[in-house]
């Protein structure tokens, strides 16, 4: 990951050719499958250089939305513009403006890493000299320079994903689509990939739209998320804002004398609410980490010993739970998903 | 044009890399050539057959290996569909037609190489070397068979979800096309009902064309063969392109 090469400046960003306006603008997009509404009146906009997350359980309509934006699937109604191009009116313009990393692998395993890149560059009309230079840069960026002459079928799941990301960037798209980019990858590889994605945003100013049902992924990567459930966007905004709407942090404090400690805790200025719940004190407050010492001091002052402390910060999972009454995890292990995971495991 | 070349290049690379496929596909044609050719050589005596029965069936076996390789190459896009690679191609800013043409020419190239190998091997089995012109005529017909039947394979693959139907297609479409083509028997003295079936088989014109190139004689006049096969190839490419237009990844 440290052997990355600097990338030459992108001509499509900040140049004269870039249309003003948002990178992605989606208006009232809907899609029916045999009378079933898979995507229902979805609207959002993504400003240049931001990472936008479509967050929701499997079958929520994330991939369908992405497929429509990628011109792979015609919408039943509604419209969208990518880089100023209308998805129905100018699909070729859209296709030139986007790079896609599909949920399922889309590499040719019988070709080498470099040949896969070269194939892509030719299809996107990248001139030969530029193509060679960019392939070198991008393969170095994702740490695959040494393996570029190896057949893809010898690659691990993480290497394949990195190659797909590099390939998606070869034609300098304004918007990169990432459909469940880390599904089925082990935690270490996932962390590495997150690092690459953040660097792409920070160094390349690439606009990204990613779908995920991993809350921590959305939380870490996205500047903005739209929570999608059963085809509808049920909440949208920055992850921080969404989490704040759910509520404050909660500290659970179990002491030897809960009543005495509670009296002292109640008067602290940071505390919004405190009560005894079971055999512990539950304290709602802002920025729990900053005030944990004060709470401990209260216990010391009351002469009580602390047997357990637990800090809970709202996550996007709580946001989803609050909005739908269900957790995303409950729905995670869908059959399709398990099969995909198994397939990727098997490849490794 | 760029896109057609790119996709052609990918197909040819894949083909040349799959040694086992190249060798494996030689098995059946060689088996036919050696077992049928030499097995029936003494039984089948016909004044029309210069070079004996072996010499007679060489064009048919060449046509057979072109046919099988071509259909298989076309149907291979189902693999691309299943392994996800087709998506990468479909989402690129290139037309469906150029994707389809690239696949067709790629498959036809593989089929041509496969047929050519059989042709060269037949030289060792006693095939009299024809003049350069005759050789080129044979190659031309092989190209046409390759294009037509790769497109045919693509047309079928466009309507298939997975490889399950492949055996069905092989047994009920491809083998009859081969069997009825006059690859293994002269068509001029067949009973009428069988002869009309033979004339309805597009591969017949390919076999006849190759036979004309390699031996200088054929039952069907070579220009008629050329016209019929070329018309079939154009029709197949048209149908294949039309069906491929609606393929979803």
List the helices and strands and how they pair.
The complex is a heterodimer of chains A (348) and B (249).
Chain A: E1 24-33, E2 36-46, E3 51-55, H1 62-69, E4 77-82, E5 85-86, H2 91-97, E6 98-101, H3 113-123, H4 128-141, H5 157-169, E7 175-179, H6 187-204, E8 207-212, H7 215-221, E9 224-229, E10 232-237, H8 239-246, E11 249-255, H9 258-266, E12 271-277, E13 280-285, H10 288-301, E14 306-312, H11 316-324, H12 335-347
Helix pairs in contact in A: 3-4, 3-5, 4-5, 8-11, 9-10
Chain B: H1 2-17, H2 19-41, H3 52-75, H4 77-82, H5 85-90, H6 96-124, H7 132-159, H8 166-179, H9 192-200, H10 202-215, H11 222-245
Helix pairs in contact in B: 1-6, 2-3, 2-6, 3-6, 3-7, 3-10, 6-7, 6-11, 7-10, 7-11, 10-11
Q: What does this molecule look like?
A:
Chain A has helices at residues 62-69, 91-97, 113-123, 128-141, 157-169, 187-204, 215-221, 239-246, 258-266, 288-301, 316-324, 335-347; strands spanning 24-33, 36-46, 51-55, 77-82, 85-86, 98-101, 175-179, 207-212, 224-229, 232-237, 249-255, 271-277, 280-285, 306-312. Chain A is α/β, with parallel strands linked by helices. In chain A, the strands form three sheets. Chain A has a six-stranded mixed beta sheet with strand order 6-7-8-3-9-10, sandwiched between helices. Chain A is elongated, with a radius of gyration of 24 Å. Chain B has 249 residues and is mainly α. Chain B has one domain (2-245). Chain B has eleven helices and no strands. The longest helix of chain B is centred in the middle third of the chain and has 29 residues, at 96-124. The interface between A and B is medium-sized, with 25 and 23 residues.
């Amino acid at each position: 990951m440290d052997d990355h090469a600097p990338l030459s400046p992108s001509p499509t960003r900040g140049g004269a050719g870039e249309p003003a306006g948002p990178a992605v603008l989606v208006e009232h997009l809907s899609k029916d499958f045999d009378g079933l509404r898979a995507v229902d009146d979805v609207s959002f906009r993504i400003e240049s250089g931001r990472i936008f997350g479509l967050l929701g359980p499997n079958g929520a309509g994330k991939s369908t939305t992405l497929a429509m934006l990628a011109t792979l699937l015609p919408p039943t109604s509604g419209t969208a513009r990518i880089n100023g191009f209308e998805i129905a009116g100018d699909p070729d313009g859209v296709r030139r403006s986007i790079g896609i990393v599909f949920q399922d692998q889309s590499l040719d395993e019988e070709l080498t890493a470099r040949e896969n890149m070269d194939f892509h560059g030719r299809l996107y009309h990248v001139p030969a000299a530029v193509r060679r230079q960019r392939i070198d840069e991008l393969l170095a960026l994702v740490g695959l320079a040494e393996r570029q002459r190896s057949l893809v079928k010898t690659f691990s799941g993480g290497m394949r994903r990195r190659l797909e990301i590099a390939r998606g960037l070869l034609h300098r798209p304004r918007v990169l689509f990432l459909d469940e980019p880390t599904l089925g990858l082990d935690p270490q590889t996932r962390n590495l990939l997150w690092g690459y994605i953040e660097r792409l945003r920070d160094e390349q100013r690439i606009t990204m739209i990613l779908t995920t049902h991993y809350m921590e992924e959305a939380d870490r990567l996205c500047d903005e998320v739209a929570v999608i459930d059963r085809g509808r966007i049920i909440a949208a905004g920055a992850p921080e804002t969404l989490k704040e709407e759910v509520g404050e942090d909660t500290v659970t404090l179990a002491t030897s004398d809960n009543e005495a400690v509670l009296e002292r805790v109640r008067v602290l200025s940071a505390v919004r609410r405190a009560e005894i719940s079971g055999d512990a004190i539950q304290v709602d407050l802002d920025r729990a980490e900053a005030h944990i010492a004060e709470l401990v001091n209260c216990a010391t002052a009351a002469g009580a010993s602390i047997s357990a402390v637990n800090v809970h910060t709202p996550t996007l999972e709580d946001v989803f739970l609050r909005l739908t009454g269900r957790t995303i995890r409950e729905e995670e292990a869908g059959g399709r998903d398990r099969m995909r995971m198994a397939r990727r495991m098997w490849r490794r | 044009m760029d896109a057609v070349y790119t996709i052609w290049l990918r197909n040819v690379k894949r083909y040349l890399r799959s040694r086992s496929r190249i060798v494996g596909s030689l098995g059946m044609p060689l088996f036919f050539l050696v077992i049928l050719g030499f097995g029936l050589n003494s039984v089948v005596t016909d004044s029309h057959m210069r070079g004996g029965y072996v010499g007679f069936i060489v064009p048919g076996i060449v046509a057979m290996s072109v046919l099988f390789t071509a259909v298989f190459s076309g149907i291979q896009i189902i693999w691309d569909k299943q392994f996800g690679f087709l998506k990468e191609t479909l989402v690129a800013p290139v037309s469906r037609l150029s994707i389809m043409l690239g696949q067709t020419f790629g498959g036809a190239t593989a089929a041509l190489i496969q047929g050519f190998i059989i042709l060269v091997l037949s030289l060792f089995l006693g095939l009299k070397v024809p003049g350069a012109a005759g050789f080129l005529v044979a190659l031309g017909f092989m190209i046409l068979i390759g294009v037509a039947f790769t497109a045919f394979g693509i047309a079928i693959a466009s309507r298939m979800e997975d490889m399950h139907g492949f055996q069905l297609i092989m047994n009920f479409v491809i083998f009859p096309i081969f069997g009825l083509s006059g690859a293994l028997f002269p068509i001029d003295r067949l009973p009428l009902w069988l002869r009309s079936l033979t004339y309805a088989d597009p591969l017949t014109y390919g076999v006849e064309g190759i036979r004309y190139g390699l031996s200088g004689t054929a039952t069907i006049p070579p220009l008629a063969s050329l016209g019929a096969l070329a018309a079939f190839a154009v029709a197949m490419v048209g149908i294949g392109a039309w069906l491929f237009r609606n393929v979803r990844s």
